[in-house]
Amino acid sequence: MTFSEQAWSTITSIRSAIAMHPFLTELASGTLAQDKFCHYIVQDSLYLAEYARVLALAAARAPDSAARLEFSDGAKVAVEVEAALHRDFFTRLNIKKIPYQPSPVCLAYTSYLTMLAATRSYEVLVAAIVPCFWIYWDVGNSIQPMSRPSNPYANWIATYADPNFGAATERVKTIVDQAAASTTEQVRDSMLASFRQAALYEWMFWDSAYRMQGWPLI
Known about the structure:
By secondary structure, the protein is an all-alpha fold. It has one domain: Heme Oxygenase, Chain A, CATH 1.20.910. The chain is built from ten helices and no strands. The chain has helices at 3-10, 12-20, 22-29, 34-61, 65-92, 104-119, 122-143, 154-160, 163-181, 185-210. The mean pLDDT is 92.
């Protein structure tokens, strides 16, 4: 069993909770309230900016040219492709481009990834990077068969069910497996912990968007 297969098997309960979350089941059916999706897409755009920086840091720390190129390309895709998706929804949903504040979960997730990039090993960092790729690919493929062309969120679903996104996910998984194979059991345990924590943040991100969670006292 590869490291990625082992890691994926340890988050079965989180994956089930994600699959059953009303944010995604309603998004799949096209019935998700627009204000909840607006909250999500704004926060996702803020997350994306920080995630691209984390990918760039992973590229700088990568031990070989293949991993450097993959994370550099990943940062470029995050900025260009997914940002274009956000711009499309910002326009269609008439979301004003004003300075927004990251929600508690968005700030916690991006701060966690930045902390790993600054203070933990390369192996532990890349293990926390892969859930964002893999879970979105898994969700995109799971809900695409349930969606209809008239679904207002069809573009979002299509982006993450795109085979090109799947191919990028597989390349990142390979990098993580290679990193795990060349390190110690202690580091692999830390990699499993960071993988699980990032997966949990993925669930929390959708949950906080569904509840339109903001900061208290503001």
